[in-house]
Amino acid sequence: MKIEEIVFDIEDKNLFLIDDLSLKADAIRYSILPKLEIISNEIISRIIELYKIDFYLDYSFLKAPHFRLSKTQRKEPTKIDYTFSSISITGQRKKDKWHGLDRGDGQTPQISPSHLSIDLDTDGLSVNFLFNHPKNFTNETYIKFFDFFIKNTEILNGLSNKSNLKYLFSYADTFTLKNDLEIKLSDNDFDVIFKGTNIEYPIDYAKINDAIFSFLIFFPVLNACTQIALNKSIEIEKDINSLGRNLRDLIDKYYLIDYLKEETKPEVLMTDIVYKAESKIKVQAGIRWQVFRRDNWRCVACGRSAEDNVILHVDHIIPRSKGGKDELENYQTLCETCNIGKSNKDNTDLRKRI
Question: Model pTM?
Answer without folding.
Answer: 0.84
